[in-house]
Design goal:
Chains A, B: InterPro entries: Homeodomain-like_sf (IPR009057), HTH-type_TetR-like_transc_reg (IPR050109), HTH_TetR (IPR001647). Two copies of one chain form a homodimer. By secondary structure, chain A is mainly alpha-helical. Chain A is built from nine helices and no strands.
Chain lengths: 192, 192
C-alpha cells in the first residue's frame, strides 16, 4: 500500500493544531514578550504565510491557542470518573500546574497592560472559568441548590489557581500535595 | 522660624522611598517590560544619577521595591487586632488584591523567564511567604501543633493568591466577597 496523502482540509487542520500547540509551548517557556508570531511559526515548522493565513494577528493566535488547549483539558476532565472527592480535587488542581496554566498566566498578565489583548482575554477567561466551574461541580458531586455550595466550589478553584501561581518559580509539588490532601478532606466534609 | 533642611541622611532615605514606591506603582500599572529604571526615575522625580546610586541595577530596584512594600503591608497586618476570624480572613485576602500583589505578580512572571531575576525573586518570595504565613497563624489564632492546621492555613493563603489573580483583568470584588464569607466560615469551623 502506498502512502495516502491526507485531504487538504485535514492537512490545514493539522497545521492549525501544530501552530496552536507551539503557541502554548512558546508562551509557557518564553513568556509573552518572547513569543512573537515568527517564533511560533518556526517552532511549529510552518511558513509565515501559512501562519498568517490561519491567524491574521498575534492576538488571534494566542487567544485561540489558550482556548484550544483549555478545551482539550476540559474534555479530558469531562471524561473523568473520579473515585471519590480526593481524586476529583487532585484532578482540578492539576489543571493549574501544567504548561497550560503557565501559558494562560503569561497571557493574562500581558493582557492586564495591553488594552487590545485585554478585552479578548477577559472574555476568554470568563468562558473557560464558567466551564471549569461546571465541570468541578459535576466531579465533586456538589449540590449547588444548597446555600454556600457554589462559593465553596469557587473557593476551591481559587485555591487551585493560587497553588498554580505558587508553582511558577519553584517546584512546589511536595507542599501542594499536603495542602490538597487536607483541603480535599475539608471540602468533602463541607459538601456532605 | 525658617525652613529646616532635613539632614542629608534623611533626604537620602526619602529619595530611596520615593524610588521604591514609584517602582511598585510602575510595575503594577505598566508591567515588567514597561518598567525601566528611567521610567521609575522620572515617575519619582529623581535624577538618573541618584537612582543609580541607590540601585545599581534594574533587578536591585524592583526586588527592593516589592520587598519594601511587602514589609510595609506585613507591619500593618502585625499591628491588626481582628475581631474574629472573618475579619482576619478578609485582611489576609486584601493582601492579594491591591497594587502590591499586582506588582509582585508582574515581577514573578518576568522572573519565570529571566534567570538573572529568577533567583532573587524566588528567594524574596520564599521570605515574604514565610512571614505572611506566620502573620496568618497569629491573626487566625491557629494552633499549628494540631495535625492539618498548617495545611489549612496554607490552603487559605493559596486561595487568597488565586483570588488576587482572578482580580487581575476585571473587578472581581462582588464574587470575592461571597467566596471569602463562605471560606471564612469553613476555616473558622475547621480551626475550632
Amino acid at each position: 500500500m502506498g502512502v495516502v496523502t491526507p485531504p487538504k482540509q485535514d492537512r490545514s487542520r493539522a497545521t492549525r493544531q501544530k501552530l496552536l500547540q507551539s503557541a502554548v509551548a512558546c508562551l509557557a517557556e518564553r513568556g509573552w514578550s518572547g513569543s512573537t508570531v515568527a517564533v511560533v511559526a518556526e517552532h511549529a515548522g510552518v511558513s509565515r504565510g501559512a501562519t498568517q493565513h490561519h491567524f491574521p494577528t498575534r492576538e488571534d493566535l494566542f487567544t485561540a491557542a489558550v482556548e484550544y488547549v483549555a478545551e482539550e483539558r476540559s474534555e479530558a476532565l469531562r471524561a473523568l470518573r473520579p473515585e471519590g472527592r480526593a481524586q476529583a480535587v487532585a484532578a482540578l488542581v492539576d489543571l493549574y500546574t501544567g504548561p497550560l496554566f503557565r501559558a494562560a498566566l503569561h497571557l493574562w498578565v500581558a493582557a492586564s497592560n495591553e488594552p487590545q489583548l485585554g478585552e479578548r482575554v477577559t472574555e476568554l477567561e470568563a468562558r473557560v472559568g464558567r466551564e471549569t466551574h461546571r465541570i468541578a461541580v459535576r466531579l465533586l458531586g456538589a449540590d449547588e441548590s444548597r446555600p454556600g455550595v457554589r462559593e465553596t466550589v469557587q473557593g476551591l478553584l481559587d485555591m487551585a489557581r493560587g497553588l498554580g501561581l505558587a508553582n511558577l518559580l519553584t517546584d512546589d509539588a511536595a507542599r501542594r500535595d499536603r495542602v490538597v490532601a487536607e483541603w480535599a478532606d475539608i471540602v468533602d466534609r463541607v459538601l456532605d
